Amino acid sequence: MVAILCVVMTWGQGKAVLIMKQIACEHCDLLLQAPKLKQGECAICPRCHHKLSRLRPSAINWLFSYIITGLILLVLSNLFSLMTFNLAGNISEVTLWQSASKLYFEQYKVLSLLVYVFTVVFPGVILLMILLFITTIKLGKQQWYLASLLRLIFALIPWAMAEVFLVGALVSLVKLVTIAKIELGYSFWAYCLFCICYVKVLSLVDKYQFWYWVERCHDD
Questions:
Q1: Residue spans of the chain under pLDDT 50
Q2: Helix or strand run (H / E) with residue 192
Q3: Where in the chain is the domain with CATH 1.20.140?
Q4: Model-level pTM?
Q5: DSSP assignments along 110-171, one per residue
Q6: CATH number of 58-219, picked from 2.40.50, 1.20.140, 2.60.40, 1.20.120
């Protein structure tokens, strides 16, 4: 787990500079002196070459675009058919909601709730919270909830498993196509695109940069 022992934010020559005393690489736990980063620069662990941080100059704009697109796709993935099964003339249509609700009616009530929460609710909530965070930062407003919101975002991210559900569905399709005719619906493709947007958002979530924005907001 990355540990920041001392963080100081300064401004120099019109560019934001992030100064960190010591950090531990979250990949190999190497404790090292963190370099001074300017916008666009990246810190790399010298032992395992794991990326420690990167101050992206247009990260907020990219995050905003991917989050809005992802939320629209998530809504669409719940409106249409996920896939249609045709087994010996018996046609069955399944939606994203039904993929979890069927478990509920088969006496797997806790499992059905967990499946829907981890694959739909948590990813959507995380995107909404990040959207609230970057919107507040973009407006340059100092809000009391920013630090708590950021901690909640980082706490929920490991529990959102949209991409895991998608991989599981793809693996299941490999078996199902041998016993039934399957047609993939609009929701399936919408959820695939949503997962791409969601993973892209997570790739842009940098703890150091997010805390840097919080500190800059307080300084302003």
A1: 1-20
A2: helix 186-204
A3: 58-219
A4: 0.77
A5: HHHHHHHIIIIIHHHHHHHHHHHHHHHHHHT---TTHHHHHHHHHHHGGG--HHHHHHHHHH
A6: 1.20.140
